[in-house]
Design brief:
The chain is an alpha/beta fold. 32% of the residues lie in helices and 22% in strands.
């Protein structure tokens, strides 16, 4: 089977590696001059800065991604994060960092009991028909917990807990309970990308960088070929790793008109609102976070906005009012004697 994959991000590389290992003739097209998309590294002044994602594997080697890498034969060493996260809370004009269990214990007996009930419901996949914030509040009404939910969702998804469905939030909790916290790949994101490229090439697959796909030709409700540089290349199966909206923009021809479900799909895509966030990389001579996991800052306050050209200085903040939802300390960089924190 001939397979054409659009995009050499982590998704395109994973599906390319899987199908190549299954014996398919796979060709992957990437418009950028490098593979990896938002899951690779760029070297800058001795630091390896990720292009989008953190240098982390969700749920470490036990999670779906870690297990898939192992099954594909992609040789990546994943170091578990211990602890997986700490929470920064105010203490006077300073702060203290707590592990999650300590944070919960300070809620008191009754709220701690309600937290355990929520965890039980998450294990039973009970959580539909409301937002994640409302799902929590119906059992556990606490300002600190609400702030922590927003901080966690802001860090991981770039949205508030009120914008996450209860079912998705419950699924995230269930996966953490089942697989554990994240892990750090030695060598950063690029080590994962390089390992997958090796699997694809050793299995006969091909990756073309600096190759932009101009269109997907649809005939009789089926994706038949890719338009690249004025040439139509036919495949038995076409897979896009560009996302729904960008993939929809590539559709060419009239072969999709009248296809079952297409109109509804187009309406769903049109109603989507992309999330966005800002990642700040900070280099230091010593560690700012004393572990390899995540530091969540639910009590953080946004910095005062200063417009371009405005010479006013932002108002000073107390030490614990750090202007971000979360941060990640990179163990791989620190093992080389330099600290790197992503906020």
């Amino acid at each position: 089977m001939r397979v054409g994959v659009i995009g050499a991000g982590i998704g395109g590389l994973l599906v390319g590696a899987k199908l190549s290992r299954m014996g398919c003739d796979v060709e992957i097209y990437e418009r950028l001059p490098f593979a990896g998309g938002r899951f690779t590294n760029i070297e800058y002044r001795g630091y390896q800065l990720s292009t989008g994602a953190l240098h982390m594997i969700p749920h470490g080697e036990r999670g779906p991604l870690g297990r898939m890498l192992a099954e594909l034969g992609a040789r990546v060493e994943i170091v578990p994060s211990k602890p997986s996260a700490t929470i920064r809370i105010p203490r006077g004009n300073s702060f203290e960092d707590l592990e999650f269990s300590e944070f919960i214990s300070r809620l008191g007996f009754w709220k701690g009991l309600m937290y355990r009930l929520l965890i039980l419901e998450a294990c039973l996949s009970i959580g539909t028909g409301s937002s994640f914030r409302d799902w929590i509040a119906r059992r556990l009404s606490d300002e600190g917990v609400a702030k922590l939910a927003d901080s966690s969702c802001g860090w991981a998804l770039s949205v508030t807990s009120g914008e996450v469905s209860a079912s998705e939030g419950v699924s995230i909790i269930a996966n953490i309970l089942k697989y554990g916290g994240s892990g750090v790949p030695m060598g950063g994101c690029r080590s994962v990308v390089n390992a997958l490229i090796q699997v694809i090439e050793e299995s006969g697959g091909r990756i073309y960088t600096n190759k932009k796909v101009d269109g997907i030709l649809i005939e009789d409700c089926t994706a038949e070929s890719l338009c690249i540089g004025g040439e139509d290349i036919t495949y038995d199966l076409i897979i896009s790793d560009l996302g729904h909206r960008e993939t929809q923009r590539l559709i060419r021809g009239d072969g999709h008109i009248g296809c079952s479900g297409v109109k509804r799909y187009e309406e769903e895509v049109a109603s989507m609102h992309p999330t966005s966030g800002v990642k700040i990389n900070i280099g230091s001579s010593e560690s700012l976070i004393d572990h390899t996991g995540i530091l969540l800052t639910p009590y953080a306050e946004a910095c005062e906005r200063v417009e371009p050209g405005d010479k006013r200085r932002p108002k000073p903040r107390t030490p614990w009012k750090t202007p971000y939802n979360g941060a990640h300390g990179n163990a791989w960089q620190r093992s080389r004697g330099r600290g790197e924190t992503r906020a």
